[in-house]
Write a structure and sequence with these properties.
It comes from Lentilactobacillus parabuchneri. This protein has 145 residues and is an alpha/beta fold. The chain has one domain (1-145). The protein is built from 1 helix and 11 strands; from the N terminus they run αβββββββββββ. The longest helix is centred in the N-terminal third of the chain and has 23 residues, at 2-24.
Length: 145
Amino acid sequence: MKKTVVIGLVVTLLGVVLFSIGLGHGGAKTVYWDHGFTTESYAHVDSHQTSSQYDGIKNFDLSTDSPVQIKKGDVSKVEVTYPSATKITKSGDTLHFVLKLPQRRHSVIVFGSDFQRPSKSVGKTVITVPQDTEIGTITSNVSDS
């Protein structure tokens, strides 16, 4: 019995050491099967919420991977709160939004804590339009909204 306990402790300590080495060399990545054995690579997008105001806007062209909400509110100009990674350009009375994240791959996870890919959402785009402003056209190429 004493020999069994000693062997058990040695194997446990060896397992902890090997686990630590594996974790230290990037072993915490998700491993999945998607047309071949692959590990998840995470694309880090540095982003925080930013706010801007625009005058004379009636149309919106949305091409963004972040969720978008358009609402009327108590503001004097069109107010936009958006992830800082979003590129916004104004041409005439149209605001153009562009935010593309790395393409998502849906797959079956073999090892990990969840059964779906971690979200790469960087925030939400909220467009607040003055109460008396009539919205013209909204062109969108929005995913997951």
